[in-house]
Amino acid sequence: MKILVTGGAGFIGSAVVRLAVARGHHVVNLDALTYAACLDNIACVADSPLYAFEHADIRDRAALDRIFAGHMPDAVMHLAAESHVDRSIDGPGDFVETNITGTYNMLEAARAYWEAQGRPEAFRFHHISTDEVFGSLPMDPAVKFTETTPYDPRSPYSASKAASDHLVRAWHETYGLPVVLTNCSNNYGPYHFPEKLVPVVILNALAGRELPIYGRGENIRDWLYVEDHADALLTVLERGAVGRSYNIGGENERTNLDLVRTLCALLDEIRPKASGSYADQIAFVADRPGHDARYAIDPSRIQQELGWRPSVTVEEGLRRTVQWYLDNEAWWRPLQARDGVGERLGTARAAP
After folding, report:
1. Catalytically annotated residues
2. Fewer CB within 10 A of the terminal residue: the chain, N end or C end?
3. What are phi and psi of 103, to 5 degrees?
4. DSSP string covering 288-300
């Protein structure tokens, strides 16, 4: 099929683009190339006859109409979003404009195109969201997010994503637009922009900086390898039921402190310091406002209905990720100079 991917130069979007092209799909990558985007993420497919790039902003409705008319996609995978919680606390306006207004524009452009094509049943609008829309879980391991968990967002980022989820469902119920939705747990892996927790720990460790952990590091996240996530997203696009949502998790719960210690142990093994352990650089910093205690996903629906399960354990995924950053300094070094990213690395602004 021909898939229009928004945000395809970002972390998760680029993994989707690479995998979709590898599987023989035609891909149109629509990206505004804001600070967190990097065309190097999809350099391996840039010359493929299956790949096309459109430099455009999802807030620009005229550009969206032009792209739909020019490329005539069979499906949309909508990943473009502002996604860093700390940045949403500092400046929520960009999150409202991109995640809410941008999604509205995408829905309206997709609806206009779909109706002009005679409302084909095979068309899909796949909206990719986050488990953060569900709020914070208690520490009880038996309690997990399901697709029917009530929404309870706690940050400007998660509130803007919750709003976009509601818009997608409304366009399905009101206009009949054939949609599917997914909500994922924390991703990690190659090409992760260097202001999120995993790359911050790796790069700060190598630079001899403090490894910042909010509070006491007791917050729990469910970690999902990004290439597994891309596989799940294509599975939902191809086989998910219209109007249905699917939670995608890695079934790998870890406290932030445990995750950081695991990364330090891997670095100690692969690139040891002259003396001591990288864990000696761990520093606890003041917690951020509204920091959710725990996220954990129950992936039963996607497992039972679509037969999808993650293939990479967190131990193997973290090892691959550490090695990738060690091998790809030419990729991450220039990104540290972008829009205060280096400053955030040095002042303990990192968290999932």
Report:
1. 131-132, 157
2. N
3. -65, -40
4. PTT--SB--B--H
